[in-house]
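Hi P.,

Sorry for the delay on this. The queue was packed all week, but I finally got your sequence through. Input first:
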Amino acid sequence: MTPPSADRPGSVRPGAEPFPRLGTRRARPVDADTGPVPVVGSRPTPPLPPMPPRTPVPVPEDTSAFPRAEQDDVPTSTALPQPDVEELPTTEKPVGRAGRDLRAAFGVALVLGAAIVGTLLVWPPAFLAVLGAAILVAVVELGQALRAGNFHPPLVPLLVGTVAMVALAWTRGPTGLITAFFLTAVAVLVWRLAGGPAGYRRDAAAGVLTALYVPLLAGFAVLLLAPDDGAARVLVFIGTVVCSDVGGYAAGVLFGKHPMAPSISPKKSWEGFAGSVLACVLVGTLVLTLTFHAPWWTGVVFGVAIAVTATLGDLAESLIKRDLGIKDMGAILPGHGGIMDRLDSLLPCAALSYLLLSVLAPV
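Then the structure:
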């Protein structure tokens, strides 16, 4: 009988156990068969089809058609000649260092100044129509701007209240102005009830703020016009505020280096504020001494107070616009923005001028 051989299937090598112990795994030879599932990478990869021959791109030897800057920056093999393109006409308007279209701003300022001075000199009550129209537009602009911040002041009672404040300030004086303001505030609160409780406090507060900020403060300009020399008082008030803006703008553009409130108005500087004070003091002193025959120091007090109040009013409106995320309150005045952008300094100065002139130049 032939002994079992290691080369015969089922044979056992000498010294090896015929059966493995339970729980142990017999080592598999490296070249052993792995079964029907092939080992990754064991199957040969078929060769890729040959790539078609690449036609070389001819490169022109003459590079004179290429601009000098492109020859230095772009490789010769990838640079392509640029066609001649005619220079397009520019449509931008000249803008000054302070970010304004100076031509448009100057032209609009002349038109507004002519309308104000003309009505005051020809027939002072006509100034009420100009003022009333400007206040109505400013209320609409402020209401639209507040909507950008999810505030919805009711416009109908505000517009009716604006007309009532201007009319009662002219006919009834300070008592009529304050009475019309309180009636407007109550009308805003009642009108907003129809909108439901959602956002009531927010919208009602925005409506009362609008009535206080625009028509109530503008009503003091009507009170300035009421006396016999009212046209002169209004001209002093507006002229001094305009000089504050012009002096601050000129000094800021020429000498401005130290920002006053960079987080609110980056272009407003302390040098510009000094120019505003100087211009207001000079104009206030000349006008009060020559027109109302007041002592010279009254012009200094009036000028400094107007310069400070006009600057604070400008900063207050800039703060509101930054909080709402807008640049201008409107776009009705080229080079200026909206009506509200021109009234930002005039509105608080109207109330201050009425109080100061009542003391420094009483009727």
